[in-house]
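Title: Prediction job returns without error message
Component: structure pipeline
Severity: low
Priority: P3
Assignee: unassigned

Description:
Job completed but the reporter wants confirmation the result is attached to the right record. Sequence as submitted:
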Amino acid sequence: MLHPSLFTTLSEVAHSESTPPLYYLAAWFWSRVFGSGEVGLRSLSALAGTASILAIYAGARALPLPRRAATIAAAIVAVNPVLIWFSQDARAYALVFLLTALSFLFFARARRSGSRRDLGWWAGLSALALAAHYFAAFVVVPEAAVLLLRSYFPSHSERKYDRMAPAREGRPVLVAVGVVILTGALLLPLALHQVDNAHAGWIAKQPVTKRLERAAAKLVGEDNGNEHGRRETGPVPLAIPALLAFAALALLLWGGDAEERRGAASAALVGGAGIVLPLLLGALGSDYLDGRNLIPVFAPLIVLLGAGFGVRRAGWAGIGLAAAFCLCALVFTLEIDRLPRLQREDLRNAAREVGPLRPGKAVVAARYSANQPLRYYLDGSFARGPLPPLREIVLVGSATAERTANRLLPPSFRQVESKPVSYNFTLARFRSPDPVPVPLKLLEKGELVGGAPRASVIVLPAKSPSR
């Protein structure tokens, strides 16, 4: 994805991604300093994920919520397996979570103070969050609505003491919201172009109830960062952290004082809108709701959970429930490190078994789950035009797809090897005694590797010498 040229990198976003360009812009500059190796690229997300702990704490305090509630919210971020997962990924999710948490922080401050400085920070960080992930809009839009309503429809006490307050406060809020709207307008052409690419078309094919269940599991710490296939369960049943989360809300409703409930209400409003708005958008025909895309919405929802567990009247009972909730998430995090079925596919071994790319050799990989890592490890490129005649085709995908491959590939290709190369993937190697023209569309059939409807074809870059 990252190229020596910044302009080439940014132009690639429009064709190969379904997110805005901010992360790739940041990663490009980051790689100039720290390199484009695994540690260099992933350290950007690791830094963003770590900083998110402090951002959530500060956001909870700004509502304002008690220090204990803010500390619990920060602890939930620190042990949440999905947030840890994406803090290890060279993708936009950790960055957008940080930016959304910071947007929420300055939203909370601006809602209370109305200062131009807080509004300016909110506008800038909200614009950056939108430029990192489109789903940040489902947090930023309700924040903007609350700020506008507070500005033009102040409470009775505000009207009583300052009749001119709405007029004075309204103009800065309009300017701040205008900056965010302008950012969205600038991103709209790119978003529409990426919709046409249909990279996220697989999402709507899954039942929305299953997607909501998986998103909830991610929020309470009982799922990894994957969205494909069935949800892998851990040693703690999902019902336990889910019941603990409901207990936090019950503590807030029946034990919270007026200040605690008022502060938590803002988090509930923003977080609730962040779920309802994409559901409404899906009902209108643009359905992109899944657990990963809802990561920005987790920021206010985690603050809400912290507010519930941290209710003053709950005392040590609230702290004990919070500790149990965090322990469930920590257990699942440790299980991800222990069990291969919960981890990402480690395709370094697959790349070693594939061997070096050369003219006349093509590697077919399952799209989304294997293509990008293999392209990185093999230092190859995705085929975009007619292929030269091939003598070797290597498939990296499901073992059950080998029979289909034997049927679909030209008859001169004979299978010479089959071996497992990771937890879920098998390598199948086919060779032909003579170079054979093979249509690219044939190799892009997902049936060959048993993955998505389309596969990716990795070849030697056009300008690279033979290796």
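Comment from assignee: result matches the submitted record. DSSP finds 19 helices and six strands in the chain.
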